[in-house]
């Protein structure tokens, strides 16, 4: 097994510190650029951590997934919803490629059925949530990529309690974002829930994939 050295452990600790501490970011009157950097730091450092552990293509793919997620975090703040969503969607596509490269050799009917149900359930829910119906088709299109990522994680050989659960937490986080455009627009705690689910999901995905690849090595 390839065990992490001191540098990867330090980078991982800083990633967790950056991501968790951002939950309290609104309490500090920091300049906009500092807030954006703080927001992007957690997942960006997860990308660096994955890169330091990468030994082959799959390792570099999970590093790319995290890097595109960090890009999405920053672009949402600097350029708006669409550029941010494009970065996240690119990350989902890379993740799908990674998971399909590592799919399980066999699945039970219930496992396959659940994977198939994730996609329509996510897309339909995402489509129905926004109050502005003009944007609903675009949100549904993004949600299709998001759901396909979660479904492919479920049928992969990576641990379900880390990678698959992390992917579903990512789905839940994005659905809350869409709900904030509709029925939960004025909910006071939804921002905290969105970030907590998102960062915890990304962390579980990264650690689950990197750890599995290290054990194989």
UniProtKB/TrEMBL annotation:
Compartmental location: Membrane
Transport among keywords: no
Membrane spanning residue stretches: 35-52, 59-76, 82-100, 112-129, 135-155, 162-181, 193-214
Topological type in the membrane: Multi-pass membrane protein
Molecular functions per Gene Ontology: hydrolase activity
Recorded superkingdom: Bacteria
Keyword vocabulary terms for this entry: Membrane, Transmembrane, Transmembrane helix
GO cellular component: membrane
Alphabetized Pfam families for the sequence: YhhN
Annotated family: Belongs to the TMEM86 family.
Protein name per Swiss-Prot or TrEMBL: Lysoplasmalogenase
């Amino acid at each position: 097994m390839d065990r992490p050295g001191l540098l990867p452990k330090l980078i991982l600790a800083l990633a967790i510190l950056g991501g968790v501490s951002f939950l309290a970011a609104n309490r500090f009157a920091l300049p906009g650029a500092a807030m954006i950097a703080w927001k992007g730091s957690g997942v960006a450092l997860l990308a660096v951590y994955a890169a330091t552990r990468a030994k082959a293509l799959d390792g570099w793919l999970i590093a790319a997934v995290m890097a595109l997620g960090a890009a999405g975090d920053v672009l949402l703040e600097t350029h708006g919803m669409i550029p941010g969503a494009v970065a996240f969607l690119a990350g989902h596509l890379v993740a799908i490629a990674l998971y399909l490269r590592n799919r399980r050799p066999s699945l039970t009917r219930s496992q396959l059925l659940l994977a198939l149900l994730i996609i329509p359930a996510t897309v339909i829910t995402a489509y129905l949530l926004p109050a502005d119906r003009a944007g609903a088709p675009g949100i549904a299109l993004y949600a299709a990529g998001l759901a396909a990522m979660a479904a492919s994680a479920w049928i992969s050989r990576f641990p379900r309690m880390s990678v698959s659960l992390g992917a579903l937490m990512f789905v839940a986080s994005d659905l809350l974002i869409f709900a904030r455009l509709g029925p939960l627009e004025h909910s006071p705690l939804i921002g905290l829930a969105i970030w907590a689910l998102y960062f915890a999901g990304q962390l579980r995905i990264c650690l689950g994939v990197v750890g599995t690849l290290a054990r194989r090595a």
